[in-house]
Amino acid sequence: MNAVSIVIGSICFLLIAYRLYGTFIAYKVLKLENSKPTPAHELEDGKDYVPTNKWVAFGHHFAAIAAAGPLVGPILAAQFGYLPGLLWLLIGAVVGGAVHDAVVLFASMRRGGKSLSEVAKDELGPVAGFCTGLAMLFIITITMAGLSMVVLHALENNPWGTFAVAITIPIAMGVGLFYKKTGNLKLASTVGFILLMIGVFAGPYIQDTMIGDWLTIDAKTLAIILPIYAFFAAALPVWLLLAPRDYLSSFMKIGVFIALIIGVFVINPEIQFPAFTQFIGGGGPIIAGPVWPFISITIACGAISGFHAFIGSGTTPKMINRWTDIKPVAFGAMLVECLVAIMALIAATALMPGDYFAINSKPEVFEALGMSTVHLSELNREIGLELEGRTGGAVTLAVGMTYIFTKIPWFENMAPYFFQFVIMFEAVFILTAIDAGTRVSRYLIQDFFGQFYKPLKRVDWLPGNIFASVLACFMWGYLLFSGDISSVWALFGVSNQLMASIGLIIGATVILRIADKRRYMLTCLIPLAYLFITVNYAGFWMVTNVYLNSANAGYNVLNGVLSIIMLVLGVIIIVAAIRNWIQTFNHPRAKLGSMEA
């Protein structure tokens, strides 16, 4: 199998899906039309609710949802072979992820841009709304701390990466101010992109200067700086920092993967992995469980991800200019993210299996596998680092992309540069999600605690905004600084996909209320059935085989208890939803317009 065949087939499949299934979801199921103003117009405040050009909104949404997931998940899932990950990405993204993202964004906009917990309360009742809010607060806190920890280790004592990431902040603020004053998006984008590239490529030249010394920062200091930065990202007007930074970052994100696609076409590397490895039944060095359910837990972003529900019911619904923009912004961005994940999978599986497992396994574990490396010594020499045992997926992606790029003749001596550039690129990928995620966390805190103190619910109340932003940053910042997040890192996969299940539950409820044909509800029920069963089985497997198994190295009672709590919350929500669906089916209902609350 060669990489070009996979890329061409995947692009064709995703384009057809967007044109046919995306149009069906947008105009038949959700009945999108533009006669009614969106919440961005109805509630415009120049800060959170801001009507935004659909391509800027697309850039923000894509940059926010495409964090570590589509990069790292497929890398780790390569343990099972190239085919399980490829199939789950294509089928999961079209049938599950794109539908999930579109219906969550639509459901939030119908309720004035409210968070998913508030939408759940309106659609399913107070108990389901409370459980949804509690689950969302738990998941977003862990997610922000976990994503930040990846950035922490990418930028630690790395002045080049720190400079390249930091320079995007003043550039984005300048673009935001210029665009707001002139309305000239093309010029703002062009100048911003050029400055961004200058900043990126200037990084190596500042390493040995005074600026480089200032930017050589240890992990503990970075753990304080990141939450402080996130506070401003959450508290400042969305047009000043968040939207333009994500919009500009999306250029680099998409641009790097377009370059990777071109590199794949030029080199046409062979996929070195088999379709299935010997680890599909479990017992692998990276993922202990079997291919099902763990392929759908390991690969979230890129196929379907609950984190997207935070963005789709957080920042994005407050920015959509026209209702029909939901199709390109939500459905379209999910399919682009799927392609990003496929390219990450190709970068991993183009490596020799022995090299891949040597990078992603601890040395003693790799030795027990009985495998031999092929090109790893050469890669170590070219990149200038010892790559063995650098687990977690990020280094593997950088090595895989570097391996492809340096096969192009005029790039053959640039391995260290490409490797460091991809590491920095991954950090920017993740930081844009931290920007939006922290702002969403602020919204969730205001919604959740606003039940006990009403003024907190007002997004125009400055003290409430500051309090919620500080609390959000403190919650995940404390976990980041203390390092305690490592004790619950394994909960990410299950909790994230549980959140996606909740999003599909809300989507199914809304579709049942507004669609012309009740069978359209199946667009959410089919992926929901698969995902809910998968999540609960994976959670049960982890609790019984790992967390509460004293003979296992991952034994952790706290993780087991937290897993059980999350799964119970999911059951409560789906029981409330089923009761609601039965009532709706059994009683005549007033016909709701497609965009009526």
Which residues form runs of ≥5 with pLDDT under 50?
590-595
In CATH, the homologous superfamily goes by the name: Amino acid/polyamine transporter I
CATH architecture: Up-down Bundle
Could you tell me the number of beta strands? 0
- The proportion of residues forming helix, as a percent range, comes to 55-70%
By CATH reckoning, the class would read Mainly Alpha
The secondary-structure class comes to mainly alpha
Number of helices: 25
Number of self-contained structural domains: 1
Based on Cα principal axes, name the global outline. Answer: globular
Order of helices and strands: HHHHHHHHHHHHHHHHHHHHHHHHH
CATH topology: Amino acid/polyamine transporter I
The main β sheet shows up as:
none
What is the strand content?
under 5%
Distance between the termini: 50 Å
Radius of gyration: 23 Å
| Mean of residue pLDDT values | 83
